[in-house]
Amino acid sequence: MSTDEQILEEFTSKEYEHGWSVDFEADEAPLGINDDIIRFISAKKEEPEWLLEWRLKAFKQWQKMTEPNWANVKYPKVDYQSIRYYSAPKQDKKPKSLDEVDPELLKTFERLGISLQEQKRLTGVAVDAVIDSVSVATTFKEKLSELGVIFCSFSEAVHEHPELIKKYLGSVVPANDNYFAALNSAVFSDGSFCYIPKGVRCPMELSTYFRINAANTGQFERTLIVAEDDSYVSYLEGCTAPQRDENQLHAAVVEIYAAKNAEVKYSTVQNWYPGDKNGKGGIYNFVTKRGICAGDHSKISWTQVETGSAVTWKYPSCILKGDNSIGEFYSVAVTNNHQQADTGTKMIHLGKNTRSRIVSKGISAGKSQNSYRGQVEIMKRAENARNFSQCDSLLMGDKCGAHTFPYIDIKNKSAQVEHEATTSKIGEDQIFYCQQRGIDEETAVALIVGGFAKEVMNKLPMEFAVEARKLLALTLEGSVG
Amino acid sequence: MISIKNLHASIEDKEILKGIDLEVKAGEVHAIMGPNGSGKSTLASVLAGREDYEITEGSVTFENEDLLELSPEERAQKGIFLAFQYPVEIPGVSTTNFLKTAINQVREARGQKALDAVHFLKLMKEKMKLVDIDQALLSRSLNEGFSGGEKKRNEIFQMAMLEPKLAVLDETDSGLDIDALKIVADGVNTLKTKDTATIVVTHYQRLLEYIVPDYVHVLYQGRIVKSGDKSLAFELEEKGYDWIKEEVAAI
Amino acid sequence: MIKDAPAILENIASTFKGNKAQKSALDMLNEVGLPHRKSEAYKFTPITSLLEKNIDFQSIVADVFDADKLYDEAGSHLVFINGELDIEKSTIADALKFEVAEVSEGKHDPFSLLNAAYAKEEIRIESGYEEPVFVYHFNSNGFTNPRIKVNVKDGHTFRIIEKLITPEEQKTFTNSYIDFNVGKNAFGYHTKVQNYNAETFSHETVVAHVSRDGQFYNNTFSFEGAMVRNNLTINLEDENTEGHMYGLFLLDKKSHVDNNTSVDHTKPNSFSNELYKGILDEKSTGVFNGKIYVRQDAQKTNAFQSNNNILLSEDATLHTKPQLEIWADDVKCSHGCTSGQLDEDAIFYLRARGIKEKNAKAMILKAFAIETMQHIKVESVKEEVQQLVDLKLG
Fold first, then answer.
1. Res. A120: pLDDT tops 90
2. Nearest Cβ partner of B82 from A434, A436, A443?
3. What is the ipTM of this complex?
4. C334, closest residue in chain A (CA to CA)
5. What tens digit of pLDDT does each residue of B204-229 get?
6. Number of domains composing chain B
7. In chain A, which residues have their Cβ closer than 8 Å to the Cβ of C316?
8. For a tag site, which of A453, C149, C180, C335 has the least CB within 10 Å?
9. Would you call A307 helix, strand, or coil by DSSP?
10. What does the pLDDT read at residue C278?
């Protein structure tokens, strides 16, 4: 075996760190999906009638839709009737504070490195912890509410702030937007809601941590972020799942609304279970994320580090409606073994002087397929719109693929759009140079990949950057081709 | 310090080195000269452990240890430094970050504690003066967008930081103007001690006016065909390589 | 491809007169169908509905041969009238007429199949001429399917210049197919000048197969047409091969030009270079879709692609979709595309030197366009393109 093969072998046999699961007694819906299941979920959450109607309508529409097949990914047909659409760890009563939360649940999150005990947390981050279908705890709620910031689970928001939910739910991603969004709209179980009132700069990072625990269960969370005029918030999302032989479905929806002068920064470190080295198991990550810069001078910035999931289908997008609004997308997507990722962004320029910037760094190793798919659309009224896109791919080994599909549609002559893409191999010369200075091969690869992804990594909030860097190094350890 | 015996090396079945014998002791400076394509850079790369070359015969011992058994990083950790003819660019990785990683891995291999940020920076400041290198340059991506002179100075700066026992300078003088050449040579001379050795690989005699060799070897067609003291370098400068070629042809 | 628009296929079925090979192409076509409204490959050119709306597939119109349209250039001239080689008007004797042979590729490509099924004949041209060969298609019928196969023998250099001429007052649809087999160490050059009119609809397929050490060049210059779709595919089938694609689409009125190019690197050490430039004025639409495939065996591939565009009018539309698909790891590939308007600073600079605004603009646009013209080697074609550029840009 050559050194290269050895290293590849070593690398591909790397275990997923968060592959364990915990046996909770769970409150579950039967397998499958139909009107009754939706009623069951809605009833569990004691939802108002209008929301149930909204769900049922979405379900009707979903039944008429067909699963999209244009993405550059292949996976066996999902049997939607063998998925469980609701599973919640049983808790005797609804906990009023963290002290009442089942200590086992808290331990689960501790084990993931997420402490829900406020005193143990970095003071800069408030966390909403979601396990399977429900939110189990949200930290720093009181402190935030002093500023008028609402940060709570989606279910809670439905009860406490129905007027806001009614106004914004589905306003950015309509229930029938696409197949997976429609499914989510029908069966979503929980998620986070953030509301930043006018003029408030949220003093801490808001974060949701998603964990799939139960088997055969899909996760369908929904996140809604509303930033009023002149407000600012930075939001973080993290995810892991146990190691299971069967594929599990994650179909989330994230909606962001940014009013005049508002700025929302949304960061994701996605580390769902990617399946084993033979491609068995893993999460299907079919996610719709979209933000609207509704007000003038507003800004939405997406940053994502994607290392997990067996199949990823995800295009965080910005609708730049307000004049002078700004959309950004920074992404590092790493695929290894048999992972497949089709990810990118859409920047829809509607307003005048709107700007967008796309930086995508794809790293493919093992037998994986990594695709960037992006769309820049300059509509007729978008005077002086600007876009710059940069997509770079790095290949490690000769069994993987890197694909780039940028779509650029321009209907206004004043648009200035630039797109650049490169694909290259991690250089043997670079590795040798590092080695000659006494750096071993694995560290050399981590160093080179870190450099390649730096522009995106620098966009992550401090709290996430360290984790993301570690994750990147871990995912690609020794994978030289 | 290093002993090379009957070394044969080939790339893609083409033999480049056809039996090299060379003995370098601590405190010595050896110059390896020769026309283009004679195998000079191959020799430097083989000593550093580049895997593109296959060693078909011979041995290399470094401080009584079989060098050929070691990986490139192990060789570096044991004190072999190669100043590259074409230093490699690594986008997004600053020289500082790069060197910090390197030094700490070398220290780890030698059973020393990692340097903390304060001591590392102190060491860096000290060595920067040696090659007149600017802090701003060290914060930029390694070798990316550096001028030829900056790259070469950066190589010597790295050498100063890593304090090798045996430094192999591969055409370090190429692409340098006379001022840069002096700075580089001064750096190398300052780093020289009675415990270290230097192999200077070059095509021109110019560098050897500043880094004075104890021995000069002429490499031609994969063999050392002539050895002498520094006067040999002057002779080559004056007469070119043709007479060497003729001598070899005559044999 | 979704089966659709049986209306067209049914409509023309009664005119089918093909041989056995053509019948099997027809069967495959019926299986594949024509592009659907949602077909990714025709996303910006709804070809099926455009043809349905505009074209009378069965209309037969007297021929429109016009000797003035021929290039005044030494070389061989091949004149096709409504898809058939007119030997009397042509100056080449050994371009041979054949029956359409069994379709061996493009079995999923509806327009290649459509051509194979309805072509009246298959013309095979072999290299061996010092001078370029000029191919003219005078098409006045509603629906024409010129079909040509070119063989560039080992070590040969062969240039083909192709041109379609249609009447101004007649709606026509030309569905052409030309296939180049470029032998070992051979050079194939193919140049097209597309200066059609508001009634011309065309779908033009160019396929090249390049053998070891061979090179293929395509130059496509588009100036006008109701709907022009260019499908250019270069298959680099062996080591040390090169593919070159250069294009200019300089459009105004309601012209619609869709350039769909693809280069497939299958073996090590191959090279491709692509440069397309678009200048869009008035209500024109330009589409560029450039695909680069680098297969697993194609190590040490270098592939470069660039598409630059300038929009001159509020009503012009541009769609550009570069696409890189790479399965080999030791490759250097890059693509870039830009879209913008005229550089105001540059115009101001020229005006400050006393040049009229109109001239300043024309000067800058011509400079922008000229880069795509450097590979035209035939003088009269170069002149023609230059004249058309001058005419369009004033």
1. no
2. A436
3. 0.88
4. A422
5. 888 888 999 999 999 999 999 999 99
6. 1
7. 413
8. C149
9. coil
10. 96
Alpha carbon distance C394, C391 (integer Å): 5
Q: Do B162 and A438 touch (CB under 8 A)?
A: yes
Q: Do chain C and chain A touch with ≥3 beta carbon pairs under 8 Å?
A: yes
| Contact at CB, C319 and A419, closer than 8 angstroms | no
**Do C341 and A411 make contact, defined as CB atoms within 8 angstroms?**
no
Is B20 a domain residue? no
Residue range of the domain that includes B100: 28-53+72-250
Partners of A363 on chain B (C-beta within 8 Å) are: none
> Is residue A75 domain-resident?
yes
Report the mean per-residue pLDDT for chain C: 91
Q: Is the pLDDT of residue B246 over 80?
A: yes
Instruction: Report the C-alpha gap between A472 and A332 in whole angstroms.
Output: 9
Residue B11 lies in a domain: no
Give, in order, the Cα–Cα distances in Å from A4 to each of A8, A109, B177: 6, 37, 40
Q: Does the structure show a pLDDT above 70 at A242?
A: no
Q: Which pLDDT score is estimated for A119?
A: 46
Using CB atoms, which residue from A70, A397, A415 is nearest to C339? A415
C1 part of a folded domain: no
Q: Which of A6, A330, A433 to mutate to test the interface with B (most CBs of B within 10 A)?
A: A433
Please name the member of A395, A408, A417 whose beta carbon is closest to the beta carbon of C329: A395
Within a domain: B5: no
Task: Give the whole-angstrom CA distance, residue C148 versus residue C100.
Answer: 10
Taking only the tens place, the pLDDT of each residue in B60-106 is: 999 999 999 999 999 999 999 999 988 888 888 889 989 998 999 99
| Number of helices (H), then strands (E), in chain A | 11, 23
Q: Is residue B143 part of a domain?
A: yes
Domain count, chain C: 1
pLDDT at A29 over 90: no
Q: Total structural domains in chain A?
A: 1
- Note whether A400 and A369 are within 8 A (CB): yes
d(CA A412, CA C340): 9
Reply yes or no on whether the pLDDT at A94 is more than 60: no
Domain residues for the domain of C376 are 6-393
> How many CB atoms sit inside 10 A of residue C102's CB?
11
- Mark whether C and B touch (3+ CB pairs within 8 Å): no
Q: Read off the pLDDT of each residue in B173-194 and give the average, rounded to a whole number.
A: 86
pLDDT of residue C344: 81
Residue C226 covered by a domain: yes
pLDDT confidence bin for C113, thresholds 50/70/90 = very high
- Cα–Cα dist A416/A14, whole Å: 45
Listed residue (B95, B181, B104) closest to B135, CA to CA: B95
In a domain, A78, yes or no: yes
Asked whether the predicted pLDDT for residue C371 surpasses 50, the reply is yes
pLDDT at A22 over 80: no
Residue in chain B closest to A457 (alpha carbons) equals B92
Q: Which of A399, A406, A418 sits opposite C322 (nearest CB)?
A: A406
User: What is the residue range of A450's domain?
Assistant: 3-476
Q: Assess if residue C273 is contained within a domain.
A: yes
Chain B hits for A457, Cβ within 8 Å: none
CATH of the domain at B126: 3.40.50.300
How far apart are the CA of B218 and the nearest CA of chain A, in angstroms? 26
- Does A481 map to a domain? no
Query: Is residue A361 included in any domain, yes or no?
Result: yes
**CA nearest A413 in C: which residue?**
C311
Residues C284, C229: Cα–Cα separation, whole Å = 14
- Please give the average per-residue pLDDT across A265-288, as a whole number: 85
CB distance from B164 to chain A under 8 Å? no
What confidence tens digit (pLDDT) does each residue in A304-345 have? Answer: 988 888 889 899 999 999 999 999 999 999 888 888 999 999
* Per-residue model confidence (pLDDT) at position A44: 85
| A130 φ, ψ (degrees, to nearest 5) | -115, 125
CB contact under 8 A, C322 and A421: yes
All residues of chain B having their beta carbon less than 8 Å from the beta carbon of residue A3 are 51
Task: Please check whether residue A438 touches B, CB under 8 A.
Answer: yes
Confirm if A221 and A256 have CB atoms less than 8 A apart: no
Q: Do the bridges between strand A326-335 and strand A355-364 make them parallel or antiparallel, or are there none, so unpaired?
A: parallel
